[in-house]
Amino acid sequence: MMTNLRNRVRLEIPAEHSHLGMLADCIRAMLERVPDIPDLDTTIYNIQLAAHECCANMVDHAYSGHNGLIVATLALEDRPRQFVVELQDSGSTFNLADSVEPNLEVPQIHGYGLFLMRELMDEVSYTPMPGNNRWRLVKRLD
Amino acid sequence: MELKSRKHPNLTVLALSGRFDSSESARMNAWFEEQTTANVVINLADVNFVDSSALAVMVKAMKRCRGQKGELLLCNLQQTVRVIFELTRLDKAISIYDTEAEAIKAIG
Questions:
Q1: Span A113-137, pLDDT tens digits
Q2: Where are the domains of chain A?
Q3: Gap from A10 CA to chain B (nearest CA, Å)
Q4: Could you tell me the pTM of the whole model?
Q5: Which chain B residue shows the shortest CA-CA distance from A41?
Q6: Is B51 within 8 Å of A53 when comparing Cβ atoms?
C-alpha cells in the first residue's frame, strides 16, 4: 500500500448534521481528480453516502447530540487503487454486535445506515477505543 | 434543501431540490404532519443526495398517507438515488414513477 501525501486530506468537522455535507464535497473534489474511475458519479455517491451514514451515526450515538468533532482522513491509495475514508470520534463506543440487519421485506424506520455502509463499500471496519473510536471504509476504484 | 409544494384537487405535489439528509428530517417530518391531503407525490428530480434519514421520513410519510386512505408516490429519481431504493427494497413498498405526470395519473 502506498499513499502519496498529495492524495491525503484531513478534516475536522463539527459533529452536527448540518455540517456533514462538507465531507461529501471533499470526497467529490478528490475523486474527480482521479482518471478512469468506472461509473464515476455512482462511485462518488456511494462513498459520500457511506461516509455520511457513519458520521450521522457519530452525531446521534457517539456524541448523542453533545458537542464534538469528527476527524476525517480521506486517502487515495495505489496498489490496489482504492479510496479510504477513516473517521474518528471521541464519544461513546458503538457496540457493533448490537446492530441488527434490517428486514428488507418490511419498510423500516431505522437500521438502513449501517446496512448501506456495508453494501456500498468493499470494506467496513470499526475499532472502538475510549476517546478514539475509528471507522475505516474502503472502496476499490478499478 | 428547497421545498416547493403545489396543491391539486386530491393531492399535493412536493418538489425538492438539493440534499435530502439527516439535517432535513425534522423539517420534512413536520411538513408531512401539516398535510391535509392523503395523497402526496414527491418529485425528486433535483435531489442529488438521499440518506437513511430521508428514507425513514418517506417510510413514515407512506404510512401516514396510507393511514388516511391515500398514497405516497415518488417520481423523477436520479439514478444514484434510485439505486438506494433498490438496495433497501423500498422500491417494492413505495411506487416510483419516471415522470410527475405519470405519478399524478396513477392517483387518478
A1: 999 999 999 999 999 998 999 999 9
A2: 5-140
A3: 23
A4: 0.94
A5: B80
A6: yes
